[in-house]
Amino acid sequence: xxxxxxxxxxxxxxxxxxxxxxxxxxxxxxxxxxxxxxxxxxxxxxxxxxxxxxxxxxxxxxxxxxxxxxxxxxxxxxxxxxxxxxxxxxxxxxxxxxxxxxxxxxxxxxxxxxxxxxxxxxxxxxxxxxxxxxxxxxxxxxxx
Length: 144
Hints:
The protein is an alpha+beta fold and 144 residues long. The chain contains 3 helices and 7 strands. The chain has a 7-stranded mixed beta sheet with strand order 4-3-2-1-6-7-5, with helices on one face.
């Protein structure tokens, strides 16, 4: 009986701790510059979205599970380089809205402007600066 009680208490503690570790991240509450990028579509129409905040925190959202999961935190040098590159992208490279069955997107949110590009449509090639930066941000997230 004592062993069953110990297992029940341990299970309860594990459950409470796993609940406490869930992210309370909410995109609508972000009050700093941030990047959003990801991909979606296909038969399931699943969309994976990454959020890179100016403070270095990175979150991932899956449209099917509807959960925001912390991915990690970029080092100061990596986040500075990332946001410097984002600011250096000319506004003229943004504005494309050419999604296909499978699509990719990149959005830069700053205090004064939102620049976005969505692509995937057959026959449309986004500017090289966009795809290059997209791959760069994807690699940053994968390295965490």
